[in-house]
Design a protein that fits this description.
Length: 289
Amino acid sequence: MSAAALLMAVGPAQATPTYPVASTEAQMEFNEATFYATGQDPAQSPPGVNVACTPSAAHPFPVVLVHGLNGNQYNGWANIGPSLANLGYCVYALNYGNGGTEAVASSSQQIATFVSQVLASTGASKVDLVGHSEGGFQVEYVTKMIPGMAAKVNAVVALAPPSHGTTLWGLSYLVQAVGLSPAVASGCAACADLLAGSAAVQALDNGPIAKAGVSYTTIISKYDEAITPYTSAAINEPGVTNIVVQNVCPNDPVGHTGLAYDPGPLTMVENALDPAHQVAVVCGTGPVG
């Protein structure tokens, strides 16, 4: 289904429904398997996401969720999406860039177009952008690099973003040193774009990442096996909040993918979106991978 089709119907605000939440990675994977077995679209919208919605006074900015590399709107957001919808947010998500494998610059245009569609359909003045992994990089990149986009964004919340690229335990330097970047890009342009030192990373990191008037939060795990070093996810600039999960929840072993299926990071996302009404972080034990 096209992004436009998902956004066609917007009705008056209704009492907040309760949407089913896949709170664990295992539950999400079971649901995915069921979709395949029953002929459903495995990349469908999570419950409560891309439904008719008018933003409320309490939550005036629609939330746009941006999935990670080789992901889709369902497996990326089956926990966070319906959880936010159950709190009364208008929540939207998209599938972009052939599972996020296309070049960052190309995918960013798709995301920017989707944001404009969300604003047009809801009548909201701005959106909140929440991204995970490549999606975290994209919400930073779109806000900075797409002309006029910063004026459309209230908050950026990035889980495990390769803000300064990932070394992949040093493999990125080897790839670049022996001239393999074009070969990597031929199969997965985004894979090359997200490596430390790539043109896309240099573009994002050329000058401040954070744009004036936009709230920024990064949510990071010390045990992230994909973003290395894990500190490269942080945006060390004035006005940016960088949260290391284990500084708040010391016993949480959560890794890269697991951040989207962990009660601690979920609470951190909720607090970043509504800083005036923060709640105590619910620490859990997220998936290691």
